[in-house]
Design goal:
single chain, mainly beta, SH3 type barrels, six-stranded antiparallel sheet, disordered N terminus
Length: 87
Amino acid sequence: MTDLNKHVKIDREIEIITVKNMKVKCIDNENRVDIIQNKIYDVISIDGVFFRIIDESEEDYMYPSEMFEIIEKGEVILTEKLHSRSK
């Protein structure tokens, strides 16, 4: 049987919002060691339902927004729309 997903191309638009001075508080770290419960983090960008933050590894990673409470909304400094096509 052939895997049909290999042959289907899906176009989707991705909106990435770069923010300045947005702060969130981790309310559920889902038992991860790279993010601390109740700690406040700076948000670098928003991609759909994910926040990109610099975590305890000092690298930027995307985390589900439901793990956080917004403390400061900050301001939008750039909005990019990208098109993604699956193979």
